[in-house]
Amino acid sequence: MFLTISTTGNPERPATDLGFLLHKHPDRAQAFSTSHGVAHVFYPEASAERCTAALLLEVDPVALVRRSKGKGRGGAPDAALAQYVNDRPYAASSLLSVAMSTVFKSALNGVCRALPERAQEPLPLRIEVPALPARGGAELVRRIFGPLGWTGVEAVAVPLDERFPEWGDSRYVRLVLEGELRLADALRQLYVLLPVLDDAKHYWVAPDEVDKLLRAGEGWLAGHPEQKLITSRYLSRRWGLTRQAAQRLELVRLAESDDLDVDSVDNAVDETTDTEERPVPLAEQRRAAILAALRAAGAHRVLDLGCGQGQLVQALLKDAAFTEVVGVDVSMRALTIAARRLKLDRMGELQARRVTLQQGSLTYTDKRLKGYDAAVLSEVVEHLDLPRLPALEYAVFGAARPRTVVVTTPNVEYNVRWETLPAGHVRHGDHRFEWARAEFRDWAREVADRHGYGVEFLPVGPDDPEVGPPTQMAVFTKTAADNTAHRTEKDNTAHRTEKDDAAHPTEKKGEAA
After folding, report:
1. Secondary-structure breakdown of the chain: helix, strand, coil percentages, each rounded to the nearest 5
2. Which of 451, 454, 445 is CA-nearest to residue 486?
3. Would you place residue 426 in the very low, low, confident or very high pLDDT band (cuts 50, 70, 90)?
4. CA end-to-end span of the chain
5. Which of 140, 244, 264, 129 is CA-nearest to residue 191?
6. Which residues in 110-219 belong to E strands, given as ranges?
7. Distances in Å between the alpha carbon of 331 and those of 10, 293, 305, 338, 358?
8. pLDDT band at residue 165 using 50, 70 and 90 as cut-offs
9. CA separation for the pair 48, 17 (Å, rounded)
10. Residues 68, 70, 76: CA angle, nearest 5 degrees
11. What single string gives the DSSP state of each residue in 122-143?
12. Average pLDDT of the chain?
């Protein structure tokens, strides 16, 4: 990838001042390591009358493939679809944009200790990009750069093959920009607009990209006629981030139109006097109650049985007291979503050692689940058919036997308080049943008695004096290390059921919601 920046001058204000502004000496060729290759900076010409700085990014194709592999939505589409034959090493893209931010960081920020006044002045600039992917063609390039103060915007389409003009033009253009701008402004525009015109990024677009966009777009993006397109493409069409950026840019536009600070415009809410309490979602209250129970039990190694999409696993990992967290679910799709939520592919090594996601059925014994301090069955039991509960009971309390087991399930009596829930309906279409408080307590006490556990019941959510809390929770605590004396004929029956199910598996969807 190749980019040149040229300027002109005279003996009083020599063009070689460009070297001071870029913080790169014209007499030396320099190389800088990047995550995908090596960036070279050199000066093809350097005199008082004319000076040209060139940035050449030498992309390492192997590093590009390795770092893009497995990125899913975060990887550049071209790299994902064609790992070994693609235009990434040759055409200006987000790779060059990131290299610019690394090599010309001070210039992007408008900082030059040697010539501070010069850094704030417009320079006669000529910027050339020989191969720029432009999804939208030369016309889009002119629409994007035209309103930014350039007196000349030349975007010439590159033919597919000069020998065969009938084949037409490629999606690449040769870009030449000419005009008098501050160097920092020109570099910021390129930093944002190179990946915008390419309409692809080689890395995952995280929420902090909104801040990067607003910093680089300060002074020109808020009033740009193509602001919506630029914002959407830069943020890889992530709707939530695009909306957030648009709202913040509108505040900037309003502030600039009235010559005010952004903070003085965005003052409709005084946070110091806003005392209105927003209701905490029941799911958050449930996770908080589970975490409190696990901390009280002194648990460090925790199983989340029926982990679903990983919300509880994520909450457990935020507390350093939980040194090992294992999420188990029968659904591979749920585990895939959980891995994406936890960002396992970008997680640090130390954090990654604390978490494991594995597929497994909760109605079959699994030797991998033995030896843990605690297990959680959060909103799981109601997804099983009642005849299969004994198998789950034996797999958890009889075989795995953690020191503490936390079980939460809906309280059907509270359903009358949900205005949008029709009478006689369960809260979720996959619920096989929902217990009243007495039914849940009878089941929990029988389980505890059979397997040598004590049990305590706690409310989750507002405890209505008439119908109780929306969620009921039981905390089982093992009273003996190996209490086989408590195993009754019912337990043996459960064990036989588990064996029969192993011989004739008929597992149903929703066993681990």
Report:
1. 40, 20, 35
2. 451
3. confident
4. 49
5. 129
6. 123-133, 152-159, 169-181
7. 71, 27, 12, 11, 10
8. confident
9. 9
10. 40
11. -EEEEEEEEEEE-TTHHHHHHH
12. 84
